[in-house]
Specification:
2 domains; binds threonylcarbamoyladenylate; 386 residues; 12 helices; DHBP synthase; alpha/beta; Rossmann fold; 16% strand; binds magnesium ion
């Protein structure tokens, strides 16, 4: 329920760990904890000293604002300006998607929320996570927690406690292990504060544009006010140079890149003018020019749907050492989303020379998947798949 702090924790060990984490947080130390999207690096949000430690631990640019996490509707209200009334759209979105992977922008009460959290924005981003450990931690700490993903800035977000340990070991006092994250990609960031009443998707994520559209269409069906438009900020790798004013500060940074080069493989459906698609065998000849860092063979990671036709045609070549990380069926983008970051981080640990990621359709979770993949990929090749 989004009404109150109604998380039940049965295990004494879990409760003990939560209290230990809460005392680190109240002593202004950052702590890593699981959410349903990705692992977060939390600090008490209303204290600038604590929030500053998040930036130094991650190496995060100070102009990239943080999301504040709450465990109850009451805690949300305590952060908002006095007598602030939620719009009909926000009421609907909160009713349907909280707790869950949806972040909303609100007007910021600057007397309460430190500038470091909002990085000078007039708004503050807030979400209520659904992971029971996240909500219990916030409730026990009895304070809203600012939390970016618990990775060094620029790396893929962690979806397992082990990913956090591999990256931040020695830099933070505690990681709460809540198992693998169910959603696997970060929350959808929504700005519904514009005067036109429209809903802007600043970052696609765990809640799909299709889900949001459905809820708003149904929720406004009997209203005199028109159904808000849902505007998706489709920022492509191709638009990078063109973009002047990113609508969410974080989107201007190169993100999600493992230390291994990543190539995005696209099918021939929308080949840009002037690009000649390659056959899979011509592409294979091409990657054999990559210098392997082990003397035996070139190691190539494959991050592709488990029923990928392209994957089948590539692995025929036995001169390459293939590291397959099947993502899930093409027809199940939610599973692909769940496994994407795990795949990038796992293949990086296996010390492959190159990671090949196959594009998926930008429907449902596919939109967020492709947003992250395009940011991770250093280049794109078009392949003919027959
Ligand atoms: O699922 C998630 O959202 C995870 C988990 C831990 O909750 N957190 C997360 O935080 O992804 P982070 O810091 O990695 O991404 C926050 C995004 C950034 O793109 C940032 O620019 C944007 O939210 N953001 C935060 N405050 C904003 C604001 N006031 N206006 C516009 N964008 C904002
Ligand atoms: Mg992040």
């Amino acid at each position: 329920s989004s009404e109150g702090d109604q998380v039940v924790i049965n295990s004494p060990e879990t409760l003990g760990a939560l209290h230990t984490a809460a005392s680190f947080l109240n002593d202004l130390h950052p702590v890593a904890f699981p959410t349903e999207t990705v692992y977060g690096l939390g600090a008490v949000a209303l204290n600038a000293t604590a929030a500053l430690k998040i930036f130094s631990t991650k190496g995060r640019p100070p102009d990239n604002p943080l999301i504040v996490h709450v465990s109850s509707r009451r805690m949300l209200q305590s952060l908002l300006p006095h007598n602030y009334k939620l719009s009909r759209s926000y009421e609907l979105l909160i009713e349907h998607f909280w707790p869950g992977p949806l972040t909303l922008l609100f007007p910021c009460d600057h007397s309460l929320i430190p500038d470091i959290i909002t990085a000078g924005q007039p708004t503050v981003a807030i979400r209520m996570p659904s992971h029971p450990v996240a909500r219990a931690l916030i409730a026990i700490t009895d304070a809203p927690l600012a939390a970016p993903s618990a990775n060094s800035s620029g790396k893929p977000s962690p979806t397992r406690a082990e990913h956090v340990l591999n990256d931040l070991n020695g830099k933070i006092p505690l990681i709460l292990d809540g198992g693998p994250c169910e959603v696997g990609l970060e929350s959808t960031v929504v700005d519904g504060l514009h005067e036109d009443g429209n809903i802007r998707i600043l970052r696609p994520g765990g809640v799909t544009v299709e889900d949001i559209t459905q809820v708003l269409v149904a929720g406004f069906s009997d209203a005199e006010t028109p159904i808000p438009h849902i505007l998706v900020h489709r920022r492509d790798y191709l638009d990078d140079a063109l973009e002047q004013a990113p609508t969410t500060p974080g989107m201007k940074y190169r993100h999600y890149s493992p230390s291994v080069p990543v190539t995005l493989l696209r099918s021939t459906s929308d080949v840009p003018l002037g690009i000649e698609p390659l056959s899979p065998s011509a592409f294979l000849e091409d990657i054999k020019h990559v210098t392997p860092h082990s003397p035996d063979a070139l190691r190539v990671g494959l991050l592709m749907p488990s029923d990928s036709i392209l994957m089948k045609s590539l692995i025929n070549d036995a001169t390459i050492q293939w590291h397959e990380f099947p993502l899930g069926l093409v027809s199940e983008p939610a599973i692909i989303a769940r496994r994407l970051f795990d795949g990038l981080l796992t293949l990086e640990r296996e010390e492959v020379d190159l990671i090949l990621v196959e594009e998926v359709s930008e429907e449902k979770e596919g939109l967020a998947i492709m947003n992250r993949v395009k940011k991770a990929a250093g280049n794109t090749r078009w392949i003919t798949i027959s």
